[in-house]
Amino acid sequence: MESVYTQGIWVAETLQQQTKSLEQCWLVITHLGDPKAAFLLVFPFTYFLDKRAGVAVLWIAAISEWLNLVFKWMLFGERPFWWIGESHLYVSMPPRIHQFPSTCETGPGSPSGHAMVTAAVWWVVASSLGSFLYSRTRSVLISSAPFLLYVALLVAVGTSRIFILAHFPHQVIAGCITGFILGIVLSGRVPEGRPLLFYFSFSFSLLLSALMVNVGLQQIGIDLSWSIALAKKWCSHAEWIRLDTAPFSSLTRDCGALLGLGLAEYWKPNGWSLPWAPRALSLAFSSMGLYHVNRLPLPVQPQGLFYGLFFIKFVLVPQIVMVFVPGLVHLFTRKKKQD
After folding, report:
1. Looking at 88, 167, 292, 330, which residue is catalytic?
2. Is 237 a catalytic residue?
3. Binding site annotation covers 161?
4. Residue 114 falls in the annotated catalytic set
5. Over the stretch 267-291, which tens digit does the pLDDT of each residue have?
6. Half-sphere exposure of residue 241, counting CA atoms within 13 Å on the CB side?
7. Average pLDDT estimate for 46-67
8. What is the pLDDT of residues 290-318, one digit of tens each?
9. Residues near 141 by Cβ (< 8 Å), separated by ≥ 6?
10. H helix runs in the chain, sequence order
11. Catalytic residue among 31, 88, 98, 114
């Protein structure tokens, strides 16, 4: 693997040198490709265009990120920003590269979670939009446009991850391929009309199975905190190490979002039926609500409290988008019509 890693460092160095003027663009793209964005940005936007597609986005985001966590525990992928120092190959001639606030993620690197979740989630958006365009125009050329944009998005997100030294190219490619397959497989298996017990059981099963994998690997002598230690050792700024990038943060996010989806469908089966103007208003208010929920500061000590509050935060996400905000918009727009 050493030759693969050295080639990856060369690619990252070339990208940083040749596209330095696009630095801010790459940083924005890497944030848009963050798995968290699938829950906070893609889900509400898609839901108010098409309810089933919105539920599919949330469902697939949670499953694909959970699988990504398990794959990372199994594959032990290095990350460029720490491998450079650990390899001792660049002592005499270090590469001309630098880190960014988004670089210092603490989980293993393979496969890329950004690429994998983006590929899975945006497949739902691209395929739904492509089907809609084809039903209206009967044009293969026009209906293929969303899929071309889908490929362009994957290339952009993958390139941004290499640029900031978060991943090697092969990790990005592996994430894109895995996410693409998951998007196709899971988009046809979206739970509809399931009881709350299903979501509760599924969320608990994901949490329990991930913990069992974690404990099992530790029992055979594998220290799963190895990547956290390396990230802290080689990150150029200690404040760039954040607990919300730790593996258990993604696990609690996924389980919380799935339980929240079940609660939302329990409180309001089939959601609120709104015309286009109230939907746009609901999207605007939901986005504002999610922005403030995401910004809520959480105590990092003790870590159990942090993960518990992080879980609750993402339980609230489907409630805000599917129940609270559209319910209030429905209430006020109905009163206005009656007046």
Report:
1. 167
2. no
3. yes
4. yes
5. 998 889 899 999 999 999 999 999 9
6. 17
7. 96
8. 999 999 889 988 999 999 999 999 999 99
9. none
10. 2-18, 23-32, 35-37, 43-47, 51-75, 80-87, 113-137, 140-143, 145-163, 169-187, 196-219, 226-234, 247-267, 276-295, 303-319, 325-338
11. 114
